[in-house]
Amino acid sequence: MSQDLHPASIEVSNGEGILEIDWSDGHHSEYSLFGLRKNCPCVLCRGGHGNMNTFDRSLFFVEPTQHVEIEDIKQVGNHAIKIFWNDGHSNGMYQWESLRELCPCKQCYPEQE
């Protein structure tokens, strides 16, 4: 991924359960909030340091088993965002590179059903 690739805009729709990112290269990504929460990159959610940077894109396509909302988003430096979830969790830093690699669109993830 290019060093200068970054979000041009980030929009949250708690009602639709989606976080949308328009990237600086013109690509558009839509992530289900449930999938993002289940793919939280923090060490606690990943189950230890050995599982860091292991994510499951298929979670963006399952029926949510719980209602999740984003209460706030803060940018962390020039490389990530920190999401404050309605369940009180806010430990994960979602790096631009990881978010782009997780993009669940048909172009980025043709294996989707």
From TrEMBL:
Residues 11-100 form the Gamma-butyrobetaine hydroxylase-like N-terminal domain. One of its GO terms (molecular function) is metal ion binding. The keyword Metal-binding applies. It holds the Pfam family GBBH-like_N. The keyword Phosphoprotein does not apply. It comes from the Bacteria. Keywords: Iron, Metal-binding. PANTHER family: OS02G0197800 PROTEIN (PTHR35303). This is DUF971 family protein. It comes from Fodinibius roseus.
